[in-house]
Please model this.
Amino acid sequence: MNTAIMIGHITKDAVTRTVNIKGAPVMVTDFTVAVNEGYGDTQKTDYVRCSVWRDRGAKLAQYLTK
Model:
């Protein structure tokens, strides 16, 4: 399992969709986090696309709103 801790802002509401894996439907929740780096004139924003699979993503989607 990969773990990353990012502090930033949600760019838009999370989107939950269903994909078929080996004939079984699986829910996937996608969202994007904007993370600022640096300060002043050198500040840069990185956009990180995130996906959460199965029930955890469906439960998390209700809290991931802009």
In short: The CA atoms of residues 15 and 39 lie 31 Å apart. The first helix runs from residue 54 to 61. The mean pLDDT is 91. Helices lie at 54-61.
